[in-house]
Amino acid sequence: MKFTALQIAEILGGDIIGNPDVEVSKLSKIEEGTEGSLTFLANPKYKSYIYSTKASITIVNKTFEAEHAITTTLIKVEDAYKSFSKLLEYYNQAKLNKFGIEQPSHISKSTTYGEGVYIGAFTYIGDNVTIGDNVKIFPNCYIGDNVKIGDNTILFSGVKVYFDCVIGNNCVINSGVIIGADGFGFAPNENGEYSKVPQTGNVILEDFVDIGAATTIDRATLGSTIIRKGVKLDNQIQVAHNVEIGKNTVIAAQTGIAGSTKIGENCIIGGQVGIAGHIIIGNNVKIQAQSGIGRNVKDDEMLQGSPAFGYADYNKSYVYFKNLPKIMKEINKIDKK
């Protein structure tokens, strides 16, 4: 996919200094620019590279004035960083701009889908599935019976969505995600063996939810596991049955959330956090990486440690912990006296 400097300038509303017909087909850092690449200069720290970069086109602020000879074509804009970000989004959308149904694939006759849909090869779509407009389902996906997928949602290769689950509009679900697998429900019997408890619920993802690669979200025992609007989940997260995550909460990789726990809105949860089941975490909570949460958490708390406690108290305690050998040595001297 190639773009000329003139096309890029039109997208960004910028002014060209140099060759308007020069073409680019890839993106690069300014210090690593090669012929045929597009880059940008926003941080003054990297200004020296504009005189040596081999990138064909460089986006710069309108205030930039060259002090030496340059070979790259310039596109001058109000804000180079924001313009480059806009271009990245445009470029990404262009790459994902696929349409049609590839073969071989299996789509049940009872499935309905909207306009502008892409369904990749080796995808299986079950009975009574509803798929909205502009949905992109990449190859090797599985969509179970009675699933509903909203408009403008993307499922990357290898996503598995079990029966009865609901996915909203404008969601992004990355490769290897499993939505709606059985919750971890077993009951001991009189022989000390464990019997499976049927998991009859589903998973609901509201609008603008992003799910990272290889994350698993289990179906509810009864009712629904619910991921509210705007939630962002990183890679390799485990969300157990009947969990509810409030809107705009962000959770980093390798976090595990046990069953029936409720997490509030606008929370920020670090990587490798372990959260016990059947607890309530309030709104605007911040949990540091590798913390263990085993109790209810009030709104606006900031926690660290395992078991976790107040962030400020943790830092104070850690100062003493680091000096514990020295402190014990002094205590032993006092004991001897």
UniProtKB/TrEMBL annotation:
It catalyses: a UDP-3-O-[(3R)-3-hydroxyacyl]-alpha-D-glucosamine + a (3R)-hydroxyacyl-[ACP] = a UDP-2-N,3-O-bis[(3R)-3-hydroxyacyl]-alpha-D-glucosamine + holo-[ACP] + H(+). Catalyzes the N-acylation of UDP-3-O-acylglucosamine using 3-hydroxyacyl-ACP as the acyl donor. Is involved in the biosynthesis of lipid A, a phosphorylated glycolipid that anchors the lipopolysaccharide to the outer membrane of the cell. The keyword Signal does not apply. GO terms for biological process: lipid A biosynthetic process. Belongs to the transferase hexapeptide repeat family. LpxD subfamily. Keywords: Acyltransferase, Lipid A biosynthesis, Lipid biosynthesis, Lipid metabolism, Repeat, Transferase. GO terms for molecular function: N-acyltransferase activity; UDP-3-O-[(3R)-3-hydroxyacyl]-glucosamine N-acyltransferase activity. This is UDP-3-O-acylglucosamine N-acyltransferase. The keyword Repeat applies. It comes from the Bacteria. GO terms for cellular component: membrane. The lineage of its organism: Bacteria, Pseudomonadati, Bacteroidota, Flavobacteriia, Flavobacteriales. The active site is at residue 241. It is an enzyme of class 2 (transferase). Its EC number is 2.3.1.191.
